[in-house]
Amino acid sequence: MSGPVGTPGDVTTVACVGAGVIGGGWAAHFLARGYAVRAWDPGDGAAERLSRLVEAAWPALTELGLADGASPERLTATPTLAEAVEGAGFVQESAPESLPLKRTLLADIDAATPQGVVIASSTSGFPMTDMQTEASTPGRLVVGHPFNPPYLIPLVEVVGGQRTEPWAVEWASEFYRRVGKSVITMDRELPGFIANRLQEALWREALHMVANGEATVEQIDTAITDGPGLRWPVHGPCLTFHLAGGEGGMAHMLDHFGPSLQAPWTRLEAPELTRALRDDMVAGCASEAAGRTFAELVAERDRGVIAVQRALRPPAGDEDAGTAGEHGA
Amino acid sequence: MSGPVGTPGDVTTVACVGAGVIGGGWAAHFLARGYAVRAWDPGDGAAERLSRLVEAAWPALTELGLADGASPERLTATPTLAEAVEGAGFVQESAPESLPLKRTLLADIDAATPQGVVIASSTSGFPMTDMQTEASTPGRLVVGHPFNPPYLIPLVEVVGGQRTEPWAVEWASEFYRRVGKSVITMDRELPGFIANRLQEALWREALHMVANGEATVEQIDTAITDGPGLRWPVHGPCLTFHLAGGEGGMAHMLDHFGPSLQAPWTRLEAPELTRALRDDMVAGCASEAAGRTFAELVAERDRGVIAVQRALRPPAGDEDAGTAGEHGA
């Protein structure tokens, strides 16, 4: 079989293999979007843990708005893998992060799942090429990397391995969009994908600082929550620095702060700021700004940061604080 | 003179030296908090640019709430440095990021400013030890590093140089808190301080990815705004990973994902995960959690992420979307 058994719109049942924090979070997300979910996890007490996870997530999902017919009652914990994937139109694997385990498990899932059904792995960083080695039909195996908790954070990174067929990557991307995800479809394998490479660089610098007594855990968290972290849900790091350049944008920012790139501000060495890299960054920001002027982007950032701050930290005694989002968003 | 001329509560006038994006942002912040601001910048058209910056920021500041008597009319652009610092109870320097320039300018500001008045530099990363070399009374010179825009992002990192007197660091920290800032007072100099080291590590990884054609500018920004960036205004990177560990918290997270630290997920090498570092991270998270249980932290994160999402991206047609913050905060 060299293609999907149906379209993403045909799916009514999703199988979740592995029911830890991530697998349980996926189950909650699919349930909230109105799917039946069949879950299997070989661990002791997995069914009870899964119920607790879904129960804990449900108030948040209700707040966000449930799909028609969505119910935690549509969750079935099955005693075997075969029963979980039976009748599933999509399989999400979220087992512990161990390469030998993923290899064997994905081969088992592949053997048990009807042909043409896409199987996605929640792996945090293994390339699918390394995980699909034991599977009989590796063409329908993709990475679908979520962020914790999968029922709230929209991002999913989708990428195939060398033996993955292109239709599976496209099908998974479309399916995730259909269930409300923000999808980045990567055209090549990269350890850690994109978002984990970015947050891992930050995380390693944080660990170095704690290891050297340069900052405490609490100072590191405050530095982010009260600093750059307030901008990042509004504009990503590139557009943020585009605005830091003032009206000259990313071009001025790179030309002015270029020398700081060589400063020992982090333990990560910077790439050489070639003309080509500078021009790519400038062109990328122009493309992303999509015609919004500097003043418009500044106003957008200001409205966004204010909305975030008022949503998270309403002034004491201001009972209408929550309505700031209305004006500020 | 070995101490301050007055308390932070005595200040009524602030001098802003340098009126670019950062200096202008500081001026807007101090004006909104009810201070008179005297600003000097030797550049062509600086006074007009400063007026535009304050004007652009004022709607956001009005939305956040102005102090009694706050008015953009209380801004005076002066033709000389001496006139700017005359009568000021605090001086904020925000000149371009050049070490020779900062050295000379801080010496000039020091010479013109009455004794006992604290002078803070907005430098993005130079240690004060390297900047205070030419000043006659370096004891009152501190770093007060803000984030763009200074009128919205609360974080200020305060640290002295080798010749800075401890009272000046304490005085500046107290003054910034008084004007509504979230202050991290560092006990040692570190290039890039704390927040810039963290975001610079992320930024360098992003530049490497663009330079190698591994990701586009837009993919990098989406990876943050729709992924980890949604969590970071709620919980910083340490508490975020504390929750990624499930009920086992940071201890389980480090024990389980410890091996990924050695994976090539970023170009930044990880520190050795010694027992001491592991224990410091675990203890730091426990201290920061301050008695909040895993379930309470998860609920807090979920409410926070939902509040952020609804504030920034209200569902189409949902006119009450902005009130989500009220329930979610």
UniProtKB/TrEMBL annotation, chains A, B:
Q: Name one Pfam family in it.
A: 3HCDH
**Residue ranges constituting the 3-hydroxyacyl-CoA dehydrogenase C-terminal domain according to the UniProt record:** 192-263
What is one GO biological process annotated to this record? fatty acid metabolic process
| Superkingdom per UniProt | Bacteria
Entry keyword annotation includes Acetylation: no
Q: In which pathway does it act?
A: Lipid metabolism; butanoate metabolism
Keyword list (alphabetical) reads: Oxidoreductase
Domain 3-hydroxyacyl-CoA dehydrogenase NAD binding: start-end pairs: 13-186
One GO term in the molecular function aspect is: NAD+ binding
Protein family per UniProt: Belongs to the 3-hydroxyacyl-CoA dehydrogenase family.
What protein name is recorded for this chain? 3-hydroxybutyryl-CoA dehydrogenase
